[in-house]
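Reviewer comment 2.1 asked that we show a complete input and output for one of the modelled complexes. We chose the hypoxanthine case, as it is the one discussed in the main text.
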Amino acid sequence: MLGIIGGSGLYRLEDVKVLEELFIDTPFGSPSSPVIVGELKGKKVAFLSRHGPEHSFPPHLVPYRANLWALREVGVDRVLAVSAVGGINRLLKPGDFVVINSFLDFTKQRKSTYYEGRLSVKVEGEDKVAQLIKEGKVVHIDVSDPYCPQIRGALIEILEEKGFRYHPAGVYACTEGPRFETPAEIKMLESLGADVVGMTGYPEVVLARELTMCYASLCVVANPAAGISQNKLTSDEVLELMAQKEEQIKEVIKDLITRIEPKTCGCDKILEGAEV
Ligand code: HPA
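Response of the prediction step:
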């Protein structure tokens, strides 16, 4: 089943018939929101709000491990994350979609793995993930291609067909937040090859991959990053832009839910040869 992680400005999905609202507890704590399982044109879909229904989790305190684990518990094996980002690359304009294909991690204090060796959290289950965690294994996953090529391909197809302004690739830099960046930091990120900047894309992507899920991110440029425009950055600006894009974002998601094909990507083989 496809799972949607909604970011700033995306807290619910209308048109999806709600089947269940699940309050899930995980070995990694409670997720930021209940998981809503719904149905659209005969396809089941799960939805989780990253910042919580009242936007009460700041980026550095989002329970990323619990969120992905909760989605896994309800049977999610593919995740589409929606995120507001600042545009660093000058070609990007507010409102543009970016189907990112790599990341740079500048976070500082987030648990970014389920595999903590002998310090691993106790979990239940018999599948490969649970086995590795239970056995206290150390696991190094490959992130040569961190975002699922199949979901990225489908997103690009949808964005192209709908005629929305989009960029088919981009490097996402994840900062710790919750503050915005300084112009100097943005200059540094630009010189390192970042196209967009956000605060929540990491460790979400690697945690999903560690659970053998496919993961892709639909980024929406909400503002020019600090120093790119002379204006001060505000959360109001980000939320306003996301509100303007809400209908388009939902159109893309709904199309993806009904379009998704059987897997050909290999994301579910990520654990082969990964354990020490
Ligand atoms: N920086 C970090 N995160 C963001 C931004 C930004 O400029 N805009 C939206 N999310």
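Residues 84-86, 175, 180-181, 197-199, 222-223, 225, 233, 238 surround hypoxanthine (CB under 6 Å). We note this here for comparison with the apo prediction described in Section 3.2.
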